[in-house]
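Per reviewer request, we include the raw input and output of the structure prediction for the construct analysed in the revised manuscript.
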Amino acid sequence: MELEIKTPRVFLPLLQDGLRYLGAHGGRGSGKSHFFAEHAIERALMGKFHLVCVREVQKTLDQSVKKLLEGKIEEFGVGHLFDIQQSKIIGPHGSLFIFQGMQDHTADSIKSLEGFDAAWIEEAQSLSQRSLDLLRPTIRKPGSQIWASWNPKASTDPIDALLRSNDPPPGTAVVEVNWRDNPMFPEVLRVEMEYDRGRDPDKYAHVWEGKYLQRSDSKVFKNWKIEDFEAPADAIHRFGADWGFSVDPTVLVRCHIVGRKLYIDHEAYQIGCEITDTPSLFMTVPESEKWPITADSARPETISHMRKNGFPKIQPAVKGPGSLEDGISWLQSFDIVVHPRCRHTIDELTVYSYKVDPLTDKVLPQLADKDNHVIDALRYACEGARRAAKAAPKVESRPISVKMGW
């Protein structure tokens, strides 16, 4: 059979013969992952090809590129040639795709990958030096390759230090690719991209242009991580909503608290959402119609509309002097765990910052009023728990003198 795969011109350097390292870095919507998924299927159709798809942490297959590969197989009309199983994909000619987390490997266990033809590191900016040091000598079959796709965070990240240095390993080809290089860049992402470009140049530069993160010392949240998890059956879900104004996003976020950990597992986010479309947007978050929602009190007419259209338990947030700072401080006291599907939550936790004095370049004790729509919704979601904790009676101990005697 003949299959035509249209490859954007920017990726052509990665198709040269004799390469060992293939790297593609850049911002969201650039098509990096789509290129490598298509390349994997092409290799499998041409002959026996064993590929391991790795991330630093992979708790479930939902966090892997398996669904993307499945989608490409369907798109190309070659589903009859592939056997898609629960944990792997078997292709023609004895080809095989498997999916693993590097954090789960040891120096002994990783030896099982020695015969593979390629390793694809997705979200490579998160790969640790330990994992990179384990992987490189393991993929050592003659002609084998290591692929990496990532949105850079810092020049000191192991993958950047290896592939973007002045002295990369022999046989390295790396391309920078961004949204304008993708002829299939979707309109829904274009709306979000234009919103960030017009409102926050720093966020736009990192998320969409793939530039390094700036001023890490000004970041508000450093107490968080991305991890796949399932909410326990007895979780007390907390919902918070922030309303969009004109071109701003309307947001709903769901979270729950376990000890000193705050788990965020679902979000809804739409720029320019009409009030009549808001109920259907909120319904994309599981059980949102069943639980109380605390929403921004600045739009009482929207709260009233939502109560009449399937969300009778929605209520306004209680604002007041210092409520913003108190809410942020309270969130900072937790270890925050974000499910990887909450992309906008991840974006805001990454870039939400304190103001910086333009004259002295010093970080100020003032919160910047940007990149905070999901953050505000999260504050509202946790408002009840925060106020309850604040109102809890304090127990103090006092010394007593006891005389012992008979």
